[in-house]
Amino acid sequence: MLRPPSPIITFTLGFMMLVSVVGQARAQCELEKLTIPDGSNEDRFGRAVAIDGDLAAIGADWHDRSCVEEGDERCGAVYLFRWTGVGWLAEAKLTASTPSNDAHFGQAIAIDGDRVLVGAPATACAVGENCGSAYVFRWEDGTWVEEASFTAPDADFNDEFGTSVAIEGGLIFIGAPNDNSHFGAVYVFRHDGTIWLTAGKIISPAIQSGALQEEFGTSVAVSDDRIVVGAPAFGLTDSLGRGAAYVFRHKPPIWVPEGRIVGPEPIARYDGLGSSVSISGTLIAAGAPWDDDACLDADCDAGTVSLARFVPPNWTRFLTTDANDTSRKDHFGFSVSLHGDLLVVGANQDDDACSTSENCNSGSAYLFRQEDGVWAESSKLLASDMSGGAQFGYSVAASGGFIVVGAPEAESGAAYVFAFGEDCNENGAPDLCDFADGTSSDCNGNELPDECDIDANTSHDCNANTLPDECDIVSGYSTDCNENTVPDSCELDFGAPDCNENGILDDCDVAAGFPDLDGNGVPDECEPSAMAQQWYSIATHGPLGEIGLSIPVDGSFVEPRLAGVSRIVVSYDNAVTAAGSIATVLAACDANGQLVDLSAFTIGTSQGLANEVVITFNPRLPGSDFAFHVPTRYHVRLTGVRNAIADTEREFSVVLGDAFGRPLETGDAVVNAGDNGLVRSLAASSVDFIDPWDHSQVRADVFTDGKIDAADSGFVRSLAAAGLDGSDLQLTCAWEARRERPHRW
């Protein structure tokens, strides 16, 4: 029900209507019921609740099993639960380091990151009962430890220090509403990086004007550099009892009053505004659970909540509301929690479980949302197993996508966790509930159901299996060999190249070790010219004329790495003499430079065409599987004459089956001054870019680094000094020492 601002408050903000409209695609659902792990009847589990992110704390201030002295009772305890992504897991039980009888540890709770603050307002002290205390616990090294305990520096009996607590950013606030004979106070403590220190005492500004017994500190909440303090007995002595909520701002080192809101003039004597308070930035909410205006009855106690906003320089109440179904004795506003554009209000004596009885007290909670500047009651929360007397709504807290509602009178007590927020698939349940009950999955952990990811095009589903592509890949359902976040099967379906039709993308074949000497991303086996380069890596020229090596003609080309070679054809640029004048020598070296025994192989030569010599191997030479680094590489040396004139017995070498081998520089199979001179002259001319068609340059680039320099010249000079000839090179596998990278023709 909408109510105008109080006439005693300056109205500085535009009127904001409260309407009963549920926002589009936003919902809530009961996610889980939490119960006390080691409880008994009347523990009052749910007396206080708090939540921060994935950590929830539930107080059981009448819990007896935490007491250590025989006969003690109601020492109290706090239970911590952690959200795992699919449910809430009990994490720890907190108790005072020195539990005391009837202390009511857990009557108030607050969380800030890795700290939990607990009030025990009935703790006795040296001067009497109900002095009160508070404790802060911190998560350290995988466990919760008590970091400090607090009492009022001026403690007195019945102060009830610890009735309310708040913590944020190294500051702690503890309310003592009965301090100084019910005037009340809030005590401030500050962490200096090592220990907690007393940092001040805040009292009501109204004391100076003669106000009495406000019970200032009954409730307290903090947001950034502001706190709001409830004083529900404000005005009680003038027979009005409106209640008030005060806002203070931190002007270090003191807290300065910034404003207050008070309840409207009540019909009855006590409305109790400030019994509960919450703050979020520059917005505060204050509950008045005994407000009677809803039914204009002095004993109605239906309750209201007021909202106020800071519009400099004033705090202005812009809205007072009750529930759409408000009825007598509901105590709407008994608890409140603001979280962004969400307001949760507890009505712990609502009677939905047994509507024919005014005193059923099953309880309820209400959600209000602000959308486009309009605050709306969006829904009503009830326990799935609501029962009379449970007082569901006695405490409420909201954080992230969760709402926690305490029901302390349900047997040993209970706390219910609701999920709220987006409902992207518009099935009437928040996304978190869809995850928890298995309706939806969130495989990529972005807090959106997978089907919404796909519908919104934030994730793709190329194979139409209802899972985002990245999840297919992570789960192993699909491969992604090139790590481009697209399943390989989709790339193949969309026409990505797979030239050898092995079901693997060409670029992945290459990455896995399939040779690709020309670096074009296509396996060489699919490119005849590239395959020829692989197997016949160097063609040299010498006294016998220009040499060209052709690919095998025995069908082994399809998979020469494995099939091996039985026949090659050597073509010359001039006619050669009869085959009998051509001699061949075969040698093989492994990757370690060791000679391989090839005595079982027979090498034959025969005349082909006028300028061809055919070399045969029986059995065929085993293929070198470059993909798996089978190490064997071959040398073939041919010695022969071009014709019957002077250049007889000139010798040259050619490398077969090895992309890394190098011929001798001048092609005469002898490393001598001629080779050294050739390389030295090229090095002196600073050849930094090898011309692949200039065979002199190719041969002179001994280290195959694309340039001819002193390193090449020095190596050749050292070989020349050793008198190394072609047979030495062949038989000692010395060429392996110069293998660095493939040379591509």
The count of DSSP E runs of length 2 or more, i.e. the number of strands, is 39
Shape: elongated
Strand coverage percent: 25-35%
Structural class: mainly beta
CATH topology of the largest domain: Methylamine Dehydrogenase, Chain H
By CATH, the superfamily of the largest domain comes out as Integrin alpha, N-terminal
The poorly predicted ranges are: 1-26, 528-562, 624-631, 641-669, 724-745
First-last Cα distance: 87 Å
Can you give a write-up of this model?
This protein has a five-stranded antiparallel beta sheet, with no helix packed on it. A five-stranded mixed beta sheet has the order 2-27-26-25-24, with no helix packed on it. The protein has a five-stranded antiparallel beta sheet with strand order 31-32-33-37-36, with no helix packed on it. It folds into three domains: 2-12 and 26-423, Methylamine Dehydrogenase, Chain H; 450-496, no CATH class; 528-662, Immunoglobulin-like. The chain is mainly β and 745 residues long. The chain is elongated and about 125 Å long. Strand 36 and strand 37 (612-621) form a beta hairpin. The protein is built from twelve helices and 39 strands. Helix 9 (673-684) packs antiparallel against helix 11. 47% of the residues are buried.
